[in-house]
Design brief:
This protein is α+β, with helices and mostly antiparallel strands and 111 residues long. It is built from 4 helices and 4 strands.
Length: 111
């Protein structure tokens, strides 16, 4: 969910979470490149595209870097068995890079 702060992102997320065919991401992930530091995230917010969105949207990634970031993003949803997966970070709407990055990283999965 691309949301704005104080824009009902949590309400939309909570409502969608009650649907059988939608699931949310994990709370704890390991992010490569940080000495295997374990990062904890709120259940609905990954901030993935806040950290990586600009580089993805610019189109400057190599194929290897793109695959690595795809795997990293999908790791937030490991163990989720619903056909649709979501996350909601309220400040994704602050910049135009996020929607472009989402589509650039996984065009076949963005809805």
């Amino acid at each position: 969910i691309i949301g704005a702060q104080k824009g009902a992102t949590t309400s939309v997320f909570d409502w969608l979470s009650t649907r059988v065919n939608i699931t949310c991401g994990l709370q704890v992930v390991r992010e490569p490149g940080f000495n295997d530091l374990t990062l904890e995230f709120a259940r609905k917010e990954t901030h993935f595209f806040n950290r990586h969105g600009r580089r993805i949207a610019e189109g400057s990634l190599t194929a290897t870097e793109r695959r690595k970031l795809q795997r990293l993003y999908l790791s937030y949803f490991e163990g989720c068995d619903a056909p649709l997966r979501m996350e909601a970070t309220p400040n994704y709407l602050e910049g135009l890079a996020v929607p472009a990055a989402m589509y650039a990283l996984m065009p076949e999965k963005v809805r």
